[in-house]
Design a protein that fits this description.
mainly alpha; 12 helices; globular
Amino acid sequence: MTTFLSTIGISVLAAIAITTAANLCTTVYLHRALSHRALSVRFPAAFLFRAIIWLTTGIKPKEWVAVHRKHHAYTDVDGDPHSPILLGWWTVQKRNVLLYREAAQDPVNIAKYAKDIPDDKWDRMFFGHQKTGLLLGIAIIMVAIGPVAGLLAAFLHANFYLAANAAVNALGHHFGRRPYANNATNLQWLAFCTMGEGLHNNHHAAPSSPRLSHKWHQIDPGWWVIRSLSVLRLATVRFSDIRLTASAKTTTN
């Protein structure tokens, strides 16, 4: 029994660590750097981000970027790949992976929204092979903490990551505060889980900003990473202040 409980504990801790790393790479690299060009990342850090994303999620960056940019182009109107306003928040929470895949596998979306992210030699050698990355990532976990604990950690991580990112699209357009007049919401607890992404209302009000926290009490771990990369001269932010879109208006919520 003690060994069984120890295996579960190790698996849970490993899954949390892996999911945290995957979420940091998602918010800093896929979202803020590639999708919105809020910062530029130098090769050593960019390669590390790509490798972690490949090993922990199997996501192709240009597909993620295309889906997200389309979401901003058609936010909560016909054409949005995953709008809870159109589909219902519970539907988006349950089917977010399928909705993402449908949009990501549409060549028209890729050509229109990710034409600035062509495949390079690293994609052809490594990062373009999604299943290879996932299988290699699982193998690394199994070697690091044991086969049983590794498989359980991989299973938990997949569920943690998919549920949290689905929640940004589902809960983040339904529940929470709306300090700015858009349909997205702020959920600080979700921001903890997704390294800042839960401050979704702020993001839609200032999508080109690398910082998602607009108030002193809001916590955005992704911004801490960006600031650290800037100090190390591994990243350059477009601007560090909050620049709202012309349509962004504050509300009393």
